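pasting for ref
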Amino acid sequence: MNYLTNRQIKILKIIVEEYNKLFEPIGSKYVASLFGDEISSQTIRNEMAQLEKDGYLLKTHTSSGRVPSQKTLEYYSINLIDTSIDKNILNKLEALFVERENNIDNIINDSLAMLSEITSLPSLSNSYYVDETLREVNLVQLNDDNALLLVVTNLGNIYKNYVLINSQSRFDDAKVCIRLINELIIGTPITEIKDKILEIIPNISKEVKEYEYITKEIITKLFDATIKNCNKTNVVGITSLALYPEFKDPKVLFNILQMVESGTIWQQIKHSLDQKDNVKVEFKKTVTSDDVDKVIAIASTEIQYGDIKRQISVIGPSRMEIGKIKGILNYLKSKLENMLKK
């Protein structure tokens, strides 16, 4: 990060918060009117020009105002937000944990519903075994047309999927693919299988005759057997994204839904939470664009009980109320971990 003066930090804070409310570029005269100190709009304009040069602000094509860049959003989410929780929201959250006899899964599911209600955004949870790794992949031919793909893990879990095998040459190709997977990625954490297989794709493509078939029937279904079965996911309120003008573009909305459906979003969250923060906020581009309105924010926390880790997240536009969401996620993490200790 470039060194920021107190004045520049104050300008960035104003621009982020006003952009979040108004969803339109913020001009120097408007910033000056909110600044509080005796300072001219020309001075503000000069500061904003420097902040744009340093990558903190973006100038739109339709206005002389600026919008915050992804760099600024990340700085703001770490350094400038207020994570205090409104009293009414706190009362609602506390009610989740008063005289509860439900198990941890039910409480988390209730928490997701409340998160979605409070934020008007999708809330998600995902659970997976902490140390689950790939032990073996097998293919069992059932008849002339079908086979059973079996994925065995070090914890003894077996994930399966059915594949179409309608010729001996395809069965031979499938066996070659399975052999290479067993040789090259045994011991890989289940949550990293997709990335590892993509790394060995060149090896597989050289060894098999019908690569398109192998991709569709073996590799794709191997992903489905592991990622979709070993991760228990729950998504509440996903359709609420369509209410935000940022996601009116079907291409952008489809991209987000695909991230959730494919499990890509969980890989991004897991990487973020490896940083040991209680609540981590990530900003990800949903399409190839530098526009801040094409960026999705993901706020996540994680709890662990036994061999299972559980991620709780909220996703939304870059201007979502990050402070409030971080405060709620911090509260849920603390309460759930205290409950598990007891």
